[in-house]
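Check this.
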Amino acid sequence: MLDATFAASDLSSFAGLDGLGLRAVGQRLEADRAVIACRVVADDDWCRRCGCQGVPRDSVVRKLAHAPLGWRPTTLHVVLRRYACTGCGYVWRQDTGDAAAPRAKLTKTALRWSLEALLVQKLTVARVADALDVAWHTANDAVIAEGRRVLIDDPARFDGVTVLGVDEHVWRHTRRGDKYVTVIIDLTPVKNRTGPARLLDMVEGRSKAVFKEWLAGRPEDWRARVEVVAMDGFSGFKTAAAEEIPAATAVMDPFHVVRLAADALDRCRRRVQQHLHGHRGRAGDPLHAARRTLNTGDDLLTEKQRARLTALFATPEHVEVQATWGIYQRMIAAYRDHDRHRGRTAMTALIDAISAGVPSALVELLRLGRTLKQRAADVIAYFDRPHTSNGPTEAINGRLEHLDGSALGFRNLANYVARSLLETGGFTPQLHRQS
């Protein structure tokens, strides 16, 4: 005998139909799917034109994909009465607006399930379409439209943004059309230690004009609240930010600054290699063998790596590589210093050291010095505003690459932007709260 905590079996409640204004009247279970016959609970027999009462004429069946039950695709066969007005003769059928939008093929419950499957459970659209027993395009279009309506088009998602990150991203790897987009990231949660970064928007192209136009399209009071813009070494982003949000501080993030020094070291190594041996690095060439060791931070070197570098720098012909390596290590040490003031002082001294007085033979350091001198304020600004680097922006770029791979590429930029926003827009906690 069942205890009082159990109620009588009710297929309508079990399938979540009561919230859709439907009532289950039958079921058919097949090997790979379930079909539930339903009727609309509310009467709808009053004419929408003249207000007279109608009389039943016949019935039609509307088929809707519903949230799967136990991963078994579930389809609703909703029997709708059609009425004929006794006054004007107008014919209509029962309203199913509580269950699904007009002409939609998915119930509202299925749309909600699809969003959670895509964002929370990280399923692909193909897997969602298979679970709903609908075509891929049907599932994709429905999920994107629902995601825009519920999440992306919510103006409140731009609230509270004080730290921006901007970077370029390759959205397709073809020769046809522009393959670059500009991604704008909200780094405020990272700075405040309240959560991960989130994608705010993605705009086609990579130029000063693209970023400037996006900033100009935001409300003036919103732009006034932006305090910091983290970016790479591209001067176009800096100029756009200076023109549209002049009160914000530009920060050149450590990832790209260190990469400038690493590129200088690598170019110096290859130049010396070519000058000494007349060919590119080959197995057995000391400079080629040490290429990865040269890019390792001094505090992470093993004894074997230290011995390799000692032997490498013992050769007088490698002195230019040693000098460039020393600057690279000083830069890493400045960023890794736990004392921000000491790190700031070390970076300032480094920029001063390579901005003037560098021997003309060290062409890579001369070029690095000119770049760092030009962007010195942006580089130093990081030490006064910790946790404002573009590192989280690069992490989001990595997640977008994974999205592109799982989807086997995108041909439509609008779909890619929508899927990217859903994937990395920070909506998962919001879906969890609503669950």
